[in-house]
Recover the amino acids of this structure.
């Protein structure tokens, strides 16, 4: 696993799991697994589209709890690197429920970020390094990743 210095606008999280690399790969690539752990605490996640192949689309919805009524946030993108059990790279941007990009908060072009997952077997465990380039390490998105990976660890422990 090639560890380069993280860009200043990136969240990098490294975790080791006492689980086979194939299971960690499935957690990222099989919709039924992915929706069980992805997202911050308290949200319901749906994978409307998850075509895990180079050029394949992804469309993920998160139902956010709200006192008035549930609110949905949608994220879409494209898989740009898929190396089974080793590396997964995809783009990510806010979209509507059909996957159409939404303008950023200033009304400009949507912000497209990149998520890179690298997996390796190390000393009988699976080491996972996730780099999400395009979001700050002190952003709400970074906090969401921390919550998601806590849920991922719980899910793996139950499997």
């Amino acid at each position: 696993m090639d560890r380069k210095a993280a860009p200043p606008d990136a969240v990098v999280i490294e975790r080791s799991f006492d689980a086979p690399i194939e299971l960690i790969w499935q957690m990222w690539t099989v919709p039924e697994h992915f929706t069980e752990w992805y997202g911050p605490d308290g949200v319901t996640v749906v994978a409307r589209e998850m075509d895990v192949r180079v050029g394949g689309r992804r469309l993920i919805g998160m139902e956010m709890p709200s006192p008035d009524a549930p609110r949905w946030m949608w994220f879409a993108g494209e898989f740009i690197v898929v190396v089974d059990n080793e590396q997964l790279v995809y783009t990510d941007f806010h979209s509507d429920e059909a996957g159409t990009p939404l303008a950023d908060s200033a009304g400009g072009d949507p912000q497209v970020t990149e998520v890179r997952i690298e997996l390796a077997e190390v000393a009988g465990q699976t080491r996972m390094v996730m780099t999400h380039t395009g979001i700050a390490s002190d952003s709400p998105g970074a906090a969401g990743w921390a919550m998601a990976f806590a849920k991922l660890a719980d899910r793996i422990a139950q499997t």
